[in-house]
Structure formats: C-alpha cells, structure tokens
Design goal:
With about 350 residues, the protein is of the alpha/beta class. It has 11 helices and 9 strands. It catalyses: L-glutamate + NAD(+) + H2O = 2-oxoglutarate + NH4(+) + NADH + H(+); L-glutamate + NADP(+) + H2O = 2-oxoglutarate + NH4(+) + NADPH + H(+).
C-alpha cells in the first residue's frame, strides 16, 4: 500500500473514531487546490526542454499551508508560483532535490515581486551562530538537526512512558543521512548504544544487508530512509521492542497489525519526525517577528512541543482506545475539523 492510500485509510479510521459528519470528513479529505506549472528551460546545446511541476495545497483551516518542494536542480519554477505561495498562504520548505540554497533562490525570486519576504520559505541558509542575525536571509539556528533532534525527544517521551531512558538501550538506525546521523549523534551523547546503521555508501565496517538491519536484535529500531521498508514480509522477524518512525510511512498497514500482535510499540511518523517542520514553524515565527532566537531557545522550545504533543496523543489513545498512530491521527484531524466547523466550511 502506497503512502497516499495508507494515509487516507488512517484518516478515515480517525474520522470514524471521532464521529465526524460525512460532509466534514469529505471536506478534509479533498485538497483545497492542485497547481500545475510548466517551465521551458534552454539547455547548453540550445534546445528547449519542458518540465512540469505540481503543488498540492491541501488545507488552510488552521493557518498557512506548509510543504516541501522537490525538483531537479536545473528546473527553476519560482516565478511561475510566486502568486500562489506567500507568507500567510503557503510556505514551502526543502525536500528531495532541494536544500537551503534552493530556498534562498526562491526567496530572492519571490522578493522581486513582493519585496523582501523572508517568511515565504523556511529551511533557509544561515551563517555561523556567532555571526547570525535577523538581517541575514532569515534561516533558523537548530534547523539542520531539528528532525533528528525531534526524533530523539519523541523517543525519550515514549521510553519514559515505559519507565526507560535512552541510556544503556541498543539502537539500530536504517538510513544515515541528515536525520539518521543527527539521531545517532544525540543518542550516543545520551548514553545509548548505536549498534547498527545503514547508508547508501560504505564505511569500511562490518557489513550487513540493508534488510537484515531491520530485523537485527536491538531495543529500538529507527527507520530513517525510505517508506514501506517494514512490511508483511519482514515484520514478523522484527526483534526491536520499540520502533520510532523517523522516515515517512516506513511501516505498511499490514506490518502495523503484525507488529501490534507481537507487542512492538510503534511511534508513528506523523509525530516522531515532526521536529523538522516544527522548527520550520519557529523559523517562520522568527521571520514574522523580525527577531532571532538563539539555538538553545530553539532546542528547548522544540523539546517542550514534542513532549506536550506526546502526552496529547496519549490522551487521545485513552479517549478512543486506540494505538499511538490512531492517537496522533485523531488529534490532528480533530483540530483541523474543529477549525473547519468554526469557519463554517463544512456546508
């Protein structure tokens, strides 16, 4: 089952648990707007190539929309979408094939039409912490490590619920990019034992098959790479007691059921990997205020958000007698549904 189908299934389950009216459910399920842009790019040999880009703006009941941008480095659709994104409308961020430099280019292009608007994108570049100021492009300190740090804060909240701490536990981390490497570093600093990692490149250490890592004996498994890596083919062999979903949709719904029967606790992606987008929100807030936070404030506030969110999810689990994934979905859906009803959009 692909990510869209799994998310739709989880959404409908959450809607049933909440007893949402069918009109509200449908209004939340259907995107507000789907945008298609086409850019014609001259190549070095003088020929022209057309690239098609898409952006889906799903819901703005609780404020501006937010989402990553993915494209090839040669494509430059910024001018095409300048009137469709905005500080209080839709705030893009880096994703596959884009980075802080790309966000700086989008900011520059957008500013040609609307004046200097650092809050129009997040994930912007920064200089060193010592030199950084609100007069730069508006990037936030702590953003680079935010997703991995959020994963660790989420893990700490879950483990505390079970009377455990990171110290002394064993961890296997699938994927050693930005998220996995930061998570590993922070786990090590807290006394955790990272006993296995996987990456697309080698490091000269004892090797194992990437799939073997997922079923390696450990206390905590953290998938940080691709979606769908835990499925009905390997879920029964998972030996970890806890799974922290740092990747998007790493666990197939069928695997979810198998893991639940085994007693494995799965902390869902919708919460566990939200540290990055949370600090993106902090960046947006700083840009709106024209005031920059120091890195300690960013990290401290992120920890407060992640800890409070976990307890809110647990409350929903108790209210609806559901697992953590449904607890997270019902929490999110209930908030957007309430905003939708208050705005009168369900009719």
């Amino acid at each position: 089952m692909n990510a869209l189908a799994a998310t739709s299934r989880n959404f409908r389950h959450a809607a049933r648990l909440l007893g949402l009216d069918s009109k509200v459910e449908m209004s939340l399920l259907i995107p507000f707007r789907e945008i298609k842009v086409e850019c014609t790019i001259p190549k070095d040999d003088g020929s022209l190539v057309s690239y098609v880009g898409f952006r889906v703006q799903h819901d703005n009941a609780r404020g501006p929309m937010k989402g990553g941008i993915r494209y090839h480095p040669e494509v430059d659709p910024d001018e095409k979408i300048h009137d469709l994104i905005g500080v209080h409308t839709d705030v893009p961020a880096p994703d596959m094939g884009t980075n802080a430099q790309t966000m700086a280019w989008i900011l520059d292009e957008y500013s040609k039409f609307h004046g200097h608007s650092p809050a129009v994108v997040t994930g912007k570049p920064i200089v060193s912490a010592e030199e950084c100021s609100a007069q730069d492009l508006g990037g936030s300190l702590g953003r680079e490590a935010a997703t991995g740090r959020g994963v660790v804060f989420a893990a700490e909240a879950l483990l505390a619920e079970h009377g455990k701490t990171i110290k002394g536990l064993t961890f296997a981390i699938q994927g050693f990019g930005n998220v996995g490497s930061w998570a590993a570093k922070l786990i090590h600093e807290r006394g955790g034992k990272v006993i296995a990692v996987s990456d697309i490149t080698g490091a000269g250490a004892d090797s194992m098959d990437a799939n073997e890592l997922l079923v390696h004996k450990c206390d905590v498994l953290i998938p940080c790479a691709l979606g769908g890596v835990l499925n009905r083919g390997n879920a029964a062999d998972v030996k970890a007691k806890f799974i922290i979903e740092a990747a998007n949709h790493p666990t197939d719904p069928e695997a979810d059921e198998i893991l639940a029967k085994k007693g494995v606790v799965v902390l869902p992606d919708i919460y566990a990997n939200s540290g990055g987008v949370t600090v993106s929100y902090f960046e947006w807030v700083q840009n709106i205020q024209g005031f920059m936070w120091d890195e300690q404030q960013v990290n401290r506030t992120l920890q407060n958000y992640m800890t409070r969110a976990f307890h809110n999810i647990k409350n929903m689990c108790q209210t609806h007698d559901c697992n953590l994934r449904m607890g997270a979905f019902t929490l999110g859906v209930s908030r957007v549904a309430r905003a939708t009803l208050l705005r009168g959009w369900e009719a």
